[in-house]
């Protein structure tokens, strides 16, 4: 039996490896020619694969590591060497991938057996048994997962009497707070050589220098340990905060390792819970982190699975505007956007609130085609894969689909002002809506609500927002519309 490991199957002991005679790994490059991926994204995948190959060989596996333009070319070579081979693969989460790979294998005379993906705790069968119809509520799923996995429970109830400490996860740090340290995994020779090859081979977007992501199981375990020891205590309270000059705050930075299979969600959750049991991290941090990993990450994977291909088709709000050049070039006076875009450019990373309430919020209010934004997230982030980027961008980020959200996550500049120190250092005035110098989020926010009134007013949870819309006079609307139109022109000209 040959086990086929994909580029995001990098754990040295995935359960699929049990009893394997041979391991096939395909380093195909054609996907990387289709988009201007971040060099650090290509770096984590290709360097991660090359390190995984070497570790597997050291552990005694025979590894056929095939470098080719496409999977098809690599499989031609594989089946020439091993006619009629049986391949076993963990079922890939991206829509249609399993069927495409099976076709590639069977058309070359082989067979493909699909097994469960151990990068997730909840299997498709378990989720489908839990889900009642097509209504998916994260909070229900999360509580079910906590009980199913026995995490932070006191009998059948949550420890501390509450399932959710969301309310305690919205603090902003005091002025004298400095974020805890972040770990760096400086490239070794193999990673450096891979990054240089990426640079010479592909058209990329983003900085290569400064690469410090884990690409081996050992480094990923160290990153988990570092997070739990240094940043987990502050993770909960400051989860939604943003600070000038700080890209990581107390976030875990573990998504790329989880999505590459270098870390397992179960061990990550256990490490956080054990810190709480040792009294080294407060419940609001540990519960908040568990909610993200055991709740949101697993939930997104299944919502995606259950709602594709519709999830990624069309747009509830029919938006067609192009993504403004500032997302590509990073040139803007808007402090919050300038910070968030440069974090992505420099590291292939921005934390959740920057992704949601700055990068997606602005694009949503501006009226960007959500599919172009999804592409941008897909090539720009080290942790991006279709199964996770698509539901986050198209569902949570832009409300292109209402598959699992009942209203868009949008806000005026007020939210950024409350959760960050950006507005104090920004040339725009967060308290003004119209007039030269008014914060662009403000006019665009009202213009967005007005433009999509027909669809949004009736969505149930927008009542409060529309009660404010109803209070504005015609002359206020004229000024808002004019300001929004002017802002869009300036954004397209790269002058915002
Ligand atoms: C517009 C948008 C795009 C996003 N794109 C991606 C993406 O391409 N890949 C990705 O893994 N996550 C994505 N997320 C979810 C989340 O923002 C990232 O997982 C997180 O910011 C990664 O940083 P971290 O590891 O420091 O996470 P932390 O803030 O420390 O959170 C801990 C872990 O929880 C998990 N998690 C938290 N929220 C989510 C979520 N909504 N969906 C899935 N997992 C979650 C991740 O595994 C993360 O590592 C996106 C969110 C938004 C709003
Ligand atoms: S004033 Fe507006 S543009 Fe400037 S940082 Fe605040 S929210 Fe962002």
TrEMBL record:
Q: Cite the residue spans of the region called Disordered.
A: 158-189
Name-wise, this protein is Deoxyribodipyrimidine photolyase-related protein
Q: Name one Pfam family in it.
A: DPRP
SUPFAM superfamilies (UniProt xref): Cryptochrome/photolyase FAD-binding domain (SSF48173)
What InterPro entries does the record point to? Crypto/Photolyase_FAD-like_sf (IPR036134), PhrB-like (IPR007357), Rossmann-like_a/b/a_fold (IPR014729), UV-DNA_repair_photolyase (IPR052551)
Spell out the Basic and acidic residues composition-biased ranges: 164-174
Query: Lineage of the source organism?
Result: Archaea, Methanobacteriati, Methanobacteriota, Stenosarchaea group, Halobacteria
UniProt keywords (A-Z) are: Lyase
GO molecular function ontology, one term from the record = lyase activity
């Amino acid at each position: 039996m040959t086990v086929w490991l994909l580029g995001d199957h990098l754990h040295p002991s995935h359960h699929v490896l049990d009893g394997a005679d041979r391991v096939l790994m395909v380093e195909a490059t054609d996907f990387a020619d289709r988009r201007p991926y971040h060099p650090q994204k290509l770096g984590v995948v290709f360097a991660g694969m090359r390190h995984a190959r070497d570790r597997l060989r050291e552990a005694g596996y025979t590894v056929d590591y095939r470098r080719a333009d496409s999977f098809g070319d690599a499989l031609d070579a594989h089946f020439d060497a091993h006619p009629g081979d049986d391949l076993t693969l963990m079922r890939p989460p991206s829509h249609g991938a399993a069927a495409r790979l099976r076709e590639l294998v069977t058309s070359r005379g082989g067979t493909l057996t699909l097994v469960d993906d151990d990068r997730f705790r909840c299997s498709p069968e378990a989720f489908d048994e839990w889900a009642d119809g097509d209504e998916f509520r994260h909070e229900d799923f999360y509580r079910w997962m906590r009980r199913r996995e026995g995490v932070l429970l006191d009998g059948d109830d949550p420890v501390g009497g509450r399932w959710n400490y969301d309310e305690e996860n919205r603090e902003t740090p005091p002025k004298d707070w400095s974020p805890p340290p972040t770990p760096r995994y400086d490239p070794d020779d193999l990673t450096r050589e891979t990054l240089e090859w990426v640079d010479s081979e592909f058209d990329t977007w983003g900085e290569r220098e400064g690469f410090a992501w884990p690409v081996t199981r050992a480094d990923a375990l160290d990153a988990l340990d570092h997070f739990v020891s240094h940043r987990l205590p502050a993770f909960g309270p400051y989860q939604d905060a943003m600070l000038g000059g700080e890209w990581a705050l107390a976030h875990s930075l573990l998504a790329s390792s989880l999505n590459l299979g270098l870390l397992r969600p179960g061990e990550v959750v256990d490490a956080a819970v054990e810190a709480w049991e040792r009294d080294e991290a407060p419940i609001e941090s540990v519960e908040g982190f568990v909610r993200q990993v055991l709740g949101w990450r697993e939930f997104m994977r299944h919502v995606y699975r259950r709602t594709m291909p519709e999830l990624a088709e069309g747009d509830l709000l029919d938006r067609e505007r192009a993504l403004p050049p500032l997302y590509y070039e990073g040139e803007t006076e808007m402090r919050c956007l300038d910070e968030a875009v440069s974090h992505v450019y420099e590291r292939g990373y921005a934390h959740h609130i920057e992704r949601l309430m700055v990068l997606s919020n602005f694009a949503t209010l501006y009226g960007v085609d959500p599919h172009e934004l999804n592409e941008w997230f897909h090539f720009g982030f080290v942790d991006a894969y279709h199964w996770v980027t698509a539901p986050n961008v198209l569902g949570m980020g832009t409300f292109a689909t209402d598959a699992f959200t009942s209203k868009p996550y949008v806000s005026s500049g007020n939210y950024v002002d409350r959760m960050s120190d950006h507005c104090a250092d920004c040339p725009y005035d967060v308290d003004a809506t119209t007039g030269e110098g008014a914060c662009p989020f403000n006019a665009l926010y009202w213009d967005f609500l007005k433009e999509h009134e027909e669809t949004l007013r009736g969505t149930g949870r927008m009542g409060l927002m529309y009660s404010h819309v109803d209070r504005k006079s015609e002359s206020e609307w004229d000024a808002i519309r004019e300001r929004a139109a002017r802002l869009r022109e300036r954004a397209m000209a790269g002058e915002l």
